Amino acid sequence: MRLLSEVRFIDEKLKKAFYKLEESDNSEKQLFKFINQALTNIEENAFCGTQIPNRLVPKQYVKKYGITNLWKYDLPNAWRLIYSIRGGEVIVVSIVLEWMTHKEYNRRFGYG
Predict the structure, then answer these.
(1) Global pTM?
(2) In whole angstroms, how far apart are CA 53 and each of 14, 40, 56, 70, 91?
(3) Backbone angles phi, psi at 47, to 5 degrees
(4) In terms of residue numbers, what domain contains 90?
């Protein structure tokens, strides 16, 4: 299924952190480019990531954001972009929750 999406950040703090990456050192600039490309891909197809089974969704996401579904987008260098999809009849909105290293992802989702 391919569905155009509008991408938003969960809050202004995360949005500012994203744009701050662009102004940082080379490794963070590279991460900015990776995330930016992911956002473009998610806009073109909200379901391009991998859906995380509901039983693995961290309770903190449900409690803090009211998340009913969760997706991950694998970034280069073992980074992960975590997002949720909300939709109506007119538009699908992909909401970026955070990005993290693969190690942090494993810890957060109980894999390691």
Answers:
(1) 0.83
(2) 24, 24, 5, 8, 23
(3) -100, 20
(4) 5-108
For the chain, what is the domain count? Answer: 1
| CB-based contact 96:81 (threshold 8 Å) | yes
- Name the residue among 14, 84, 9 with its Cα closest to residue 47: 84
Per residue in 88-100, pLDDT (tens digit) is 555 567 888 899 9
Straight-line distance from the first to the last Cα atom of the chain, in angstroms, rounded to the nearest whole number: 32
**What is the rounded CA–CA span in Å between residue 65 and residue 6?**
18
Residue 39 sits in a domain of what CATH number? 3.30.2310.20
CA distances from 31 to 23, 45, 49, 72, 78 (A): 11, 21, 17, 16, 11
The residue among 75, 97, 96, 87 whose CA lies nearest residue 4 is 87
Contact 48, 41 (CB under 8 A): yes
User: From CA 76, how far away is CA 98, in angstroms rounded?
Assistant: 15
Q: Could you give phi then psi for residue 6, rounded to 5 degrees?
A: -100, 130
